[in-house]
Amino acid sequence: MTAVLLVLAAYVLGSVPTGLWLVRWIRGVDVREHGSGNIGTANVYRVAGPWLGSAVLVADVAKGAVPVLVCRALDLAPAWTVAAGVASISGHNWSVFLGFRGGKGIATSFGVLAALSPKAAAVAAALWVTAVAVTRYASVGSVLAMLSVPVSMLLWKEPAAHLAFGVAAAVLGVVRHRSNLRRLVEGTELRITDRPTAPP
Fold first, then answer.
1. Cβ–Cβ contacts within 10 Å for residue 37, how many?
2. What burial letters (b/e) apply to 110-130, b meaning 16+ CB within 10 Å?
């Protein structure tokens, strides 16, 4: 029962739309109406600047890491720990507060990954930073980072539950970026440094 409640709590925590609420509270702006329309770190950075972007990044990473760390502190089985992490990501992607819509889940996925496997998280972070530095596209960095996770899990012979998370994270990362990938092909994808066409 404790494990089930923790998974449900993780979903609710993940559902908190930090990007939307912080920008609305501090700037009085709905971030969904500017830039890419996403509520995550990259669009908050684009619309509201680096300080709010950084705050959203920290909050969204914490949403993923905290449920995993709590499960580990309670010595729950790896499967339940991963389930709590996936629930948090699902909450971010399909938030109960936003009519089951949400963000891409990359920062929250990174939080889960960092708590599960710091080495795999370091690889993913390095790939993200390198790809974004070269291309200026957050979506490229995000997809490459997520695709690296199951590979890292295999190389370091992580537990089966962790590997299952890696595969799920990679699939979700690609699926949630379908529109971004289409815009990349069309040449209309926004770079992380692009300003919104109608800035607040």
1. 14
2. bbbbbbbbeebbebbbebbee
136 in Cβ contact with 192 (< 8 Å):
yes
Full domain range(s) for residue 174: 2-96+106-186
Sign of the dihedral defined by the CA atoms of residues 73, 115, 40, 100, in that order = negative
d(CA 66, CA 153): 21
14-66 per-position pLDDT tens digit: 999 999 999 999 999 999 988 778 888 888 988 888 899 899 999 999 999 99
Number of domains making up the chain = 1
Q: Give yes or no for residue 161 having a pLDDT over 90.
A: yes
| pTM over 0.70, yes/no | yes
Asked if residue 180 is part of any domain, the answer here is yes
d(CA 175, CA 181): 10
Q: Is residue 34 part of a domain?
A: yes
Residue 101, in any domain of the structure: no
Q: Is residue 12 part of a domain?
A: yes
Q: What are phi and psi of 95, to 5 degrees?
A: -70, 135
Tokens of 139: 């979506």
Q: What pLDDT is attached to residue 1? A: 73
- Is the predicted pLDDT of residue 135 greater than 60, yes or no? yes
